[in-house]
Specification:
Blueprint (H helix, E strand, L loop, with lengths): L4 E3 L4 E2 L2 H13 L12 H4 L3 E7 L5 H13 L6 E7 L4 H13 L4 E4 L8 H9 L4 E4 L13 E4 L2 H16 L5 E6 L5 H14 L5 E7 L4 H14 L5 E4 L2 H13 L9 E6 L2 H8 L5 E4 L5 H12 L4 E2 L1 E4 L3 E2 L1 H7 L6
Helix pairs in contact: 3-11, 6-7, 8-9, 10-12
Bound molecules: alpha-L-arabinofuranose.
Alpha-L-arabinofuranose binds next to helix 3 and strand 11.
Length: about 325
């Protein structure tokens, strides 16, 4: 088990019968695209065919997450990875999952763009005997037998850490804050907003506006431009990810103000560009969200296919950085 993860004490989940039939299914499945002359016929029968539906390519975090998955779920590591990019559209993810069901892959994994609306397609996977692993984002479903395991960060905690730091630094100053939300209905948007709001409740930091920037730099910049036109007294921005924070920096500079000084900025993620802006004094604090989920996904997928017990919830451990910590961490930053 990779070291940088701690396990939540959730119930173990085994479906021995399903798993046994999956092992059979896996060994019957010929590896796809065999034009590379690998000559590994014995090992090939153990290859796990995994269909992964990614949210999109909206942020630096997402690029690092995709790389981690593609670098880990390799042929050498026993996988035949089928990867699709949903371009931040739920209908594309549902279509991809249905196609993986049709192809009778051994395991389906996906990072749901929004929390709700998954039950029907997950029922279809369950009826087909194909286990599902959630990575990064959760689904909001009453029926937790629709997936085997959920690997990812605690987003409420991330928002709470961001808010607690804001209170520590700025309570008593009467700060007016604005929020750049992630994609409407996405787990990290809902949870980070809640965590931050809970943490600043009771302080004199006032959230005066909150709008979605869809986790992208371009939309973060546009929304911040609107905020700056509407309010001339913004003291603090809480951006649900680095990319929107970086967009906000551009808007603040274009408005003739100094990001990190005239307007303080707190973000979530900790990708290289964000960490560089933090080290440069343009961002004030970043709560990390670890995108390197490939190793845990590989391990859980292997266990599920082998019929072994897996934990229902695996919580990724995240750090947090102020400007000095960012300077120290940057040289070794992997993403
Ligand atoms: O779900 C994780 C979030 O999605 C990251 O914080 C954000 O950058 C990404 O787009």
């Amino acid at each position: 088990m990779s070291k940088n993860f701690r396990r939540a004490g959730a119930a173990l989940f085994v479906t021995a019968l399903t798993a046994a039939s999956l092992v059979a299914c896996s060994s019957e499945q010929a590896p796809q695209g065999g034009g590379d002359g690998g000559g590994e016929s014995a090992a090939a029968s153990d290859t796990i065919v995994l269909g992964f539906s990614q949210v999109g390519a909206e942020s630096g975090w997402r690029a690092a997450n995709t790389k981690s998955i593609q670098d880990t779920l390799t042929k050498e590591n026993g996988f035949d990875l089928k990867f699709s990019d949903a371009q931040q559209k739920q209908e594309n993810q549902i279509q991809a999952i249905r196609s993986y069901i049709q192809q009778q892959v051994d395991v389906i994994a996906f990072s749901p763009v929004v929390e709700t609306g998954w039950d029907a397609v997950l029922e279809e996977a369950k009826s087909a005997g194909i286990p599902v692993i959630l990575t990064d984002r959760a689904v909001n479903s009453e029926d937790d037998t629709l997936y085997e395991s959920f690997i990812g960060s605690d987003f409420v905690e991330e928002g709470k850490r961001a808010g607690e730091w804001a209170v520590e630094q700025y309570d008593g100053e009467g700060y007016k804050a604005v929020e750049l939300q992630g994609t409407t209905g996405a787990a990290p948007m809902i949870d980070r907003q809640q965590g931050f709001a809970d943490a600043i409740a009771g302080s004199d930091i006032e959230m005066i506006d909150s709008q979605t920037g869809n986790f992208t730099r371009t939309e973060g910049k546009q929304v911040m431009e609107g905020f700056l036109q509407k309010y001339d007294d913004i003291d603090l921005v809480f951006a649900h990810n680095d990319d929107m924070g970086l967009g906000a920096i551009e808007a603040i500079e274009a408005a003739g103000k100094v990001p990190g000084k005239d307007i303080k900025i707190i973000t979530v993620d900790g990708v290289k560009d964000g960490m560089q802006a933090l080290a440069d004094g343009k961002i004030n604090y970043i709560v990390e969200c670890n995108p390197l989920l490939g190793p845990d996904l590989a391990e859980i997928a292997k266990k599920v296919v082998a019929g072994e017990a897996v934990e229902k919830r695996i919580v990724t451990q995240d750090e947090a950085f102020d400007q000095e910590a960012a300077k120290a961490a940057l040289p070794d930053r992997q993403y």
